[in-house]
Amino acid sequence: MFHIGMWRERMRNALAGVSEGKDYERYPPDIDEFNDAELAHGIGTPLTDAAARADHLMGELIEVYEKLGDRPFDWNVAKTTTEAVLRNSYTHPRLHMFEYYSQNDMPDRARAALRRCSHRHGEGGRASAGDGHGDLQPGVRQGAGRPWR
């Protein structure tokens, strides 16, 4: 949860920069090295604290996104704000759930986590207008206030 919170904070900061007409910190080039270094700082963070922080940041992401709407935005493979927010706050946690279940010999749960993730995105995991999202805002609001665990 610490990791999810850090990425939500990073996304919120980037979108806030865009909404203020400023440049934003880009996605790190060596993501594995970056994550490994950052995770060391999260050791000892209680799960409830990390989950509450991630949930709070989800609310802040929604607020910033509502101001921005869908617009071009370069964030790793995402090319729009909608796609970046969906990847950051919906797909990303579920991919980690898939990895956890796969590594802990729970294949049925792993497949279910992957289905929940992939049915929301078009080919290659990219969000599109025809993938059932339509307007991101109602779908994002639906998750607001609930822990994303």
Describe the protein.
The chain is mostly helical and 149 residues long. The protein has one domain. The protein has seven helices and two strands; from the N terminus they run αααββαααα. The protein has a two-stranded antiparallel sheet. α1 packs antiparallel against α4, α3 runs antiparallel to α4 and α4 packs antiparallel against α5.
Entry summary:
The protein is mostly helical and 149 residues long. It contains seven helices and two strands, in the order H-H-H-E-E-H-H-H-H. Helices cover 67% and strands 5% of the residues.
Provide key terms for this protein.
single chain; 149 residues; mainly alpha; two-stranded antiparallel ribbon; 7 helices; 2 strands; 5% strand; globular; disordered C terminus
